[in-house]
Amino acid sequence: MRALNRKLLRDLWKIKTQVLAIAVVVGCGVAILVMALGTRRSLEETQAAYYERYHFAEVFAHVKRAPEYLAERIARIPGVKWAETRVVADVTLDVPGMAEPATGRLVSIPEHRRPALNDILLRRGRAIAPDRPDEVLVDETFAEAHGFRPGDHFFAMINDKKRKLRIVGIALSPEYIYAVGPGALVPDKRRFGVMWIGRAALASAFDLEGAFNDISLSVLPAASKAEIIERLDDLLDPYGNTGAYDRADQVSHAYLSGEMDQLVATARVAPPIFLGVAAFLLHIVVTRLVATERQQIGLLKSFGYGNAAVGWHYLKVVLIVAGLGVVLGFAGGAYLGRLLTQLYADLFRFPFLHYRLSFDVFALAALVTLAAAVLGTINAVWRAARLPPAEAMVPAPPAVYRRTAVERLEPRGLVGQPTRMILRHIVRWPLRAAMTTLGISLGVAILVSTLFFFDAVEHLIQIYFHHGQRQDVTVSFTEPSAERVVHEVGRLPGVLAVEPFRAVAVRLRHGPRSERVAITGLEADAALQRALDARLRPAAIPPDGLVLSTKLAELLAAAPGDVLTVEVLEGRRPLRRIPVAALVEEYIGTPAYMDRQALNRLMREGPVVSGAHLLVDARQDEALYRRLKDTPVVAGVALQTVALRTFRETMAETMNIMMSFYVVFGGLIAMGVMYNSARIALSEHGRELATLRVLGFTRFEALYVLLGELGVLTLLALPLGCLIGYGIAWFFAWSFDTDLFRIPLVIEMSTYGGAVLVVLVAGALSALVVRRRVDRLDLVAVLKTRE
Amino acid sequence: MASAGVSKDRSPNERPRGPQGTASGPDRPERRRAFVARALTKVYGKGEVAVHALRGVDLELFEGELAVLLGPSGSGKSTLVNIMGGLDLPTAGQVFFHDLELTAFDERALTAYRRENVGFVFQFYNLVPSLTARENVALITDIARDPIAPEEALALVGLAERLDHFPAELSGGEQQRVAVARAIAKRPEVLLCDEPTGALDSKTGVLVLEAIERVNRELGTTTAMITHNAAIAEMADRVISLADGRIAGVRENATKSPARALAW
Ligand SMILES: Nc1ncnc2c1ncn2[C@@H]1O[C@H](COP(=O)(O)OP(=O)(O)OP(=O)(O)O)[C@@H](O)[C@H]1O
Ligand SMILES: [Mg+2]
C-alpha cells in the first residue's frame, strides 16, 4: 500500500467514531431509499404479473338486474376486448365457532370454463363441480383466519334462506388483493371473505337466471376508457346501473396504488434529508481535516505531489465514508425492504410477494449518495488542492474573532468569559452554526413527522368512531324497507336504541365535473351517525339541500350555495337539481348527506330506509348476533367495536414497525449532527480547553465551554425542528390525500415533546461520549506544543 | 465559583505533615518554605522504553523568592515544574505545598489547587483566541477569590492600552505579557513560568521578564522560572541547576541584576 493511502486510513481510524456517525446518517438515507423504491418495485412487478396472468379487468359496473343478451352489445362497444358478466352478492355468513355474523361476497364463476376476466388462482383443493350448487371456493386469507380446509362448511343467508356451503378449494383473485368488506376501513380477515360459487347456483338463488348484476371489461390498449365507460353506462342505465368505473377506482387496486404512492412520497422526503445532512457533516469533517493537515499538505506539495493528487487524497476520504454509508444502507435497506414486504404480504392477498433486490435501485441509491457527498465537500477538497505550498507550511493565522452584537447591549460583567467564548464561536462561523442548527432540527422534524401518524390515526379514530359513527352495530337491509322493519330490529335482544338511515347511489354533477357517490339520508335528530363540522360538532342537516364532505366539494369544485345535478342511479332514477347547503369535514371516503325525508322525497318513494344503526347492550351480543344471522331482510351486519379493533390492529401492524425505525433514524440523524459538531469543537478548541483546565477550570466548566455552543444551537433547533416537522407532516397529509381517505393534520403537544425528548437524549449521549475525551485531555502535552 | 478544596488559609490547625527541617538548599530557618519536594522520581513508559525524567529530586522553594531552574534540554525541568503546579503526579516521592501534600491529592483537589494557588505562564502563551486581552484575564478573575481587576493586572505588565484587543491582534511579546497578567491577576501564591521568553526575541523577552520581576517584587509571589538561558539566571534570588533528572547544584545570587539590564 502506498504511504499516502496508509496515512489516509490512519487519519480515518483516528476519527472512526465520527466516520461511523456520518456513515450511519448516510446509511439511513440509503436504507430508506432502497427500502421504499425496492418495495414499490416488488409490489409493482408482482401486481403487474398477477393482473396479467389472471386477467384483471379494467372497467367495472354493477347493476340490479340486466339481461344476459346485453353482454353481447356491451362487447361490441368499440375498444372493448372482452366482457364478462357475473352474479355478485354480499350475504351474511354464519361461520361455525364465531359468534359474530360475517359478510361473504359470493362471486359467480362459469361452471364449464375459466373466467375470462378476474380469473382465480386455486391454491388448494379442487375447482367446483358443475352440478354441485353448494360447493364454493373460499379466499385464502378468510380460510386461514378460520382454519378452513377443503371439506369444511359454513352457512350463508342466501336470499332469505339459510344454506350450507361446502368448501372444496382455497383460492385467490387479483380483484381482491386488498379485500375490504362493505363499509369497512381495513380488511378484516375473519369477518369478510370472498367466495366463488357456480354461476347457475348463484343465479338461481338470487332469481338472476339469464341475467347478471355485475360486468367487467377488458379494453384494447389504444381505446379511451372514458368513452367506453360512457357507452357502458348508457347501455346499463335502464337496469339499475350504479355507474361504471375505471380500474383506478376499484377499491383493491386503489388501496394498492395508494400504498405505492406513499412509498414514493417517503422516498422523496426522507432520503434527501439524510443525504443533505450527511453531506453537511462530511463537509465540516473534511474542512477540519484539511485545516489540521495544512502543514502536511504543504509538505506533500513541497515533495512534488500535485494539486490533483492532494485533491484526490481528500476526495477519497469522502468516498470512503460515503461508501461505508452506502454499504450500511444497502444492508439496512434490504432488511427493511424484506420486513416491509412481509407486512404487505400480510395486508395484501398476493399469491407471492418477495422483496427483490433490484440492481438499478441499488445503483441509483449509490449514485445519488456519492453525488451528494462529493457535492457537499467539493468546495473543501478544492481549497485543499489549491493551497499554495509556501502558504500551507506556515501555520494558519489564528482565527479572528469579533464581539457579538448581543454583547454590545450587555453591560460588561453580566456574561462570564466562558459564555462569551461560546457566543463568539457561534458568530465566528455563522453558516456552520446555522447548518448545525438545521441538521439537528431535521432530526426533530423527522421525529415529529413520524410520530404525527400516530396522532393522525388517533384523531381519525376519534372522529370516525367516537364522534361520527357512534353506533355499535349497523344492519343493512336487502331492499329499501318500511320503517316498520326498523321497529322490528329495535325489538331484537339487547338493542337499546335504533336509528334508521337511507343510502342512495347517485352521480353528482357540477359543471363538467361528476362524482359517483352515495347520499346518506340521516334522521333529523340523528344521534348515532352524525356529520361533523371542522370543530367536531355535529352539523345540523338542513331539511333541504345537500351536505358534502370537504373532499367531495373539492372534487366537484362546489361550494355552499352551488346547485348540483343529482342523478339517482337506482329506483326510478330521478334527476334533480339540489343546492349544497353545508360542508362537513370527513377523512374517510367522500360522503354526502341529506335529510332522510328529503332523500325519500327525492326518490319519490315512501318513508323507506336502507338499514339501521343500533346501540346495543354488549352483554347480549351473542343472542343478538344469533338472531341477526337468521333474519332474512338483513344483507349485512357491520360491528363497530370489531371494526375499531381491526382498524387499530391493522394500523399497529403496518405502522408500528416502520415508524419505530423512523424514530430511530430521526434520533440517529440528530445524534450524528450533535456528535460531529461536538467532536469538531473539541478538535478546534481542544487546546483552549486544556489551557482552561491547566488554569484551574474544572472538567465541568471546560465541558460547558465545549458543549455550550452545541447546547445553544440545539435549543434553537428544537422549535425550528417542530416547525419543519409540521411542514413535512403537511406534505405527507397532502400527498396521501385520496378519495379513499385523508390524513388529518393534527399534531399533539406530546408528539412535539416526544421528538424533543428523543433529540435531547441523543444530545446527552453525544455529550457523554465527548465528555470522556475532555476528561482524558493531556494537559501537559498541550503546553509543549505550539498549535 | 470558588470550589471547596485547597485554599491558602485553610490548614493552620491541621496536623502538620510537612517535613520540617529537611532541606537540600542552604538552611535558613527564618525563611518559610512554600514548596518542599522529597525524593521525586518520574518515569515515563515501562520496561525497555522507560524514560527517567526525574531521578530523586529534593528541593525547596522559599516564600517570595524568585528561583530560576536552569538545565539542558531533557533534564527534567518542565516535569518538575508541572508536578509542583499540580498538572502531573510523580512516580515516587512527595511534594508539599506548605502543609499540604500535593502527591496525595486526587484530580479534583489538584484542579482546586491550581485554581486557587498557582499562576502559570507557558512558552506558547496559550491565550484563548476568542477572548480579548481583558477577557483573557477576566477568565481567571471571574473565578478567583480576591483578584486584582483585569485592567490593573494588564497595567502591571504595561498593557493598559491594549485591553480590548484579541490575541490575533497582539504581538508575541504582548500576548505573553497578557499571559503574565492572567497568571498573576488572582494573586497566586506561586507563579510558575516555563520558558516564558522561549519564543521571543531578547528585547521583547526583557519586557516579559520585567513584568514577572515586578509581580514577584510588588506582590511577593513565590516565582519559579524555567529557562535554559544562563543570562536570565542573573535576575534570580537562587539558581537551581538540573541535569539528567537530578539537582546538579543550587547557587544564590549575591546581587540580583534587574531584568532591564539583561540581554542575550
Ligand atoms: N509524556 C512523556 N512521555 C515520555 N517521555 C517524556 C514525556 N514527557 C517528558 N518526557 C521525557 O522526560 C525527560 C524530561 O523532559 P522535560 O520536558 O521535563 O525536559 P526539559 O528539561 O523541560 O527539557 P526542555 O528544556 O527541552 O523543555 C525528557 O527525556 C523527555 O523526553
Ligand atoms: Mg521544558
Q: How would you sum up this structure, described in words?
A:
The complex is a heterodimer of chains A (787) and B (264). By secondary structure, chain A is α+β, with helices and mostly antiparallel strands. Chain A has 3 domains: 201 residues, no CATH class; 177 residues, no CATH class; 179 residues, no CATH class. In chain A, 53% of the residues lie in helices and 19% in strands. Chain A has 22 helices and 20 strands. A 6-stranded mixed beta barrel of chain A has the order 3-4-9-6-8-7. Chain A has a 6-stranded mixed β-barrel with strand order 13-14-18-15-17-16. In chain A, a hairpin with a 7-residue loop joins strand 3 and strand 4. In chain A, helix 2 packs antiparallel against helix 7 and helix 13 packs across helix 20. Chain A starts with a helix and ends with a helix. By secondary structure, chain B is an alpha/beta fold. Chain B has a domain of 166 residues: 3-Layer(aba) Sandwich (Rossmann fold), CATH 3.40.50.300. Helix content of chain B is 25%, strand content 25%. Chain B contains 6 helices and 10 strands. In chain B, the strands form 2 sheets. In chain B, strands 6-7-8-3-9-10 form a 6-stranded mixed β-sheet, sandwiched between helices. A 4-stranded antiparallel β-sheet of chain B has the order 2-1-4-5, with helices on one face. In chain B, strand 9 and strand 10 form a beta hairpin. The longest helix of chain B has 18 residues. Chain B is globular, with a radius of gyration of 18 Å. Classes of the chains: A alpha+beta (787), B alpha/beta (264). The interface between A and B is medium-sized, with 32 and 37 residues. The site of magnesium ion has 3 residues of chain B, from helix 1.
